[in-house]
Amino acid sequence: MNLSIIVAGGTGTRMNSDVPKQFLEIKNTPILLLTLQKFYEYDANMPIWIVLHKDWWNYWENICEEYKIKFGKDIPTHFLVNGGNTRIQSVKNALSEIDFFLKSKNILPQTALVSIHDAVRPLVSQNIITQNFVIAKEYKSAVTCVSLKDSLRYADEKENYTVNRALYRLIQTPQTFDFQTLYQAYQSDNIEDLTDDASVWEKAGNKVQLVEGHFKNIKITTPEDLDIAEIWIEKAS
What we know:
Elements lengths: L1 E6 L17 E2 L2 E2 H12 L5 E4 L5 H15 L7 E3 L5 H18 L8 E6 L7 H14 L1 E7 L4 E4 L4 E4 L5 E10 H7 L11 H7 L6 E3 L10 H14 L1
Parallel strand pairs: 1-4, 1-6, 4-5, 7-11
Antiparallel strand pairs: 2-3, 6-10, 7-10, 8-9
């Protein structure tokens, strides 16, 4: 069974915005809604959990209602999960909800795959989502990444020198895993300082399998990113 988590716990700090960045609009559509639609285009029946701080649940529900009235379309069914103080805690909350869901449906956890994606990556392609589930089914993990385009240097307070960029990757989302193994990894201590799910997976002794991503799959964190995303969406329309 394929499942997805969309992490929407960010704020608008670097956007100089009064609302979290996942609610900002591209082509008159909130970023979070664009992202949600990408996953339901992949599988309209896939259960999806959106991790969002409870203070913003009503705001999101109003967006869904407004969209339905404006376009006459229902927002795909999804579950809301309260976000934590960190990304790691937010994902852990969602995994706990999924564990309860699977048990309530008498679905064996070891038969499920879970894909975790940043809400502010609305340009993720169907091919990337598909390959994540295909590779994770075979290897139990699939972590989206891209090769570096620019030269790379190591630098500290004493020195700096060129390193081989071919040996490095920029990590994106989605990141997809065997649910039961990831759930167990998230029960470990000392994971709060980690920055993504692949790090938690790896710290628990599991091997990370990489999947080729795309530079269009940007994470929107600054006003410039909004401009770039709008250009890509305009070209695709």
